Amino acid sequence: MSPLAAPAADPTLATFGKDPWWLIGGKVLVIFVFLVLTVLLSMWVERRVIGRMQLRVGPNRAGPQGLLQGLADGVKLALKEDIVPRQVDKVVFVLAPVMSAVPAFISFIIIPFGPTVSVFGHHTALQGTDLPVAVLLVLAMSSMGIYGIVLAGWSSMSPYSLLGGLRSSAQMISYEIAMGLSFVAVFMFAGSMSTSEIVAKQDHIWFAVLLAPSFVVYVITMMGESNRIPFDLPEGEGELVGGFHTEYSSLKFAMFFLAEYINLATLSALCTTLFLGGWRAPAPISTVWSGANAGWWPVLWFLVKLWLFIFFFIWLRGSLPRVRYDQLMKLGWKILMPVSLAWILLVSTIKAFKNDGYDIQQILWITAGVIAVVLVVTVVWEMVRGGEGGEIVPGAEAPAPRDPAAGGFPVPPMDAPHYHGRAREKPARPATIESASEEVTSGTH
To answer: For bias kind Polar residues, which ranges apply (predicted)?
Structure first.
């Protein structure tokens, strides 16, 4: 049988667990090599793209066009001195990078690369394995990776590292809940948490179109999951030196570096699987070419979607500044979570009416009308609320000056610096050089 032909139907949960041992080991090895090469290529692409965006050259020394720069960095990190500060908790200090890197590799095992193909006469799915709760495995592994960051900050015995670890834990709680809620609508429409079955349910329309609010919420939260700009607060080199990995060097730092870029690929692949049809070809190609979703061609469509998301991450890093920590908390708790809960309630209501036999088109029109009314009421409320208190009534008392330390931001006022309520006294400056010399002479006597 030709390897370009489709030997069987799309993979399901029942097709996994029947491969020979050598084929399972080959899949694991291919996924490992793919992730390492993706990390090296992502580093090169990121440096070249941001260099072009910032009007500079970028890497161009190691290899042609700097292609071997990532490999050179890996060799350099491996040969650097491994410095371990005296006061650290050495056991936790060493295990923390491992706890960040290993879950990043495990998460990619449930990502489908393509349909069922023939490999040396054996029919197998282009996927490591699948589970009835495969998507929850990714969430569990991402939570385990956060443990590595938190323990790295705690064991370093450094205030900068500790603050970075605490930031990471609080940040994870803020966006992880919204990320999990964005998956609920996908599970409801797919009827499964299996990644292969979710891809199979998108044969006619992608969930990014059908469940656009869930897609937008996930795209925002996956930027927080990656700990990259604009949400790289656990590192925050402007205020925390390097954050949780300040005290790390050599291979331990390289493992944190590796985990970050593998998470970049995993988040992009998961978004492709859940919302962009996975390995299925886009609509114009799949409608014109009947064999676009057969054989090994779907691997190409999957890689194109994956690298589009990686480029999206790189583009944001070169375009947006780092947000403030309170802005991230507000975005997660006050915007993303309420929007996700309201969207889940709306989707479940539509599904219930559809199951009872109501006209789906009529339901969508009513839903669109309700959303429009809610948006108009919200805008009007904000306009009315914004006008209150902003006008100054003639004859009224002026509002009392605000305490600059109120609200959790103990910063001094800009016009008159104070320290604990007492003005800092500045010594009077002599008017002339002669008066200054007289003061010095009188001071010696």
So the answer is: 434-445
Per-residue tokens: 410: 């103990």
The tokens for 84 are 């371990």
d(C-alpha 153, C-alpha 92), whole Å: 10
CA–CA distance, 10 with 112 (Å, rounded to integer): 11
Residue 117 sits at φ, ψ, to 5 deg, of -130, 175
**φ, ψ for residue 156, nearest 5 deg:** -75, -15
For 247-300, what is each residue's pLDDT tens digit? 888 888 888 888 888 888 998 999 999 999 888 888 788 778 877 888 888 899
* pLDDT tens profile 99-143: 888 888 888 899 998 888 888 878 888 888 888 888 888 888 888
pTM exceeds cut of 0.90: no
Q: Measure the CA–CA gap between 294 and 217, rounded to whole angstroms.
A: 31
Contacts of 136 (CB under 8 A, 6+ apart): 193
Q: Across 194-344, where does the E strand assignment appear? A: none
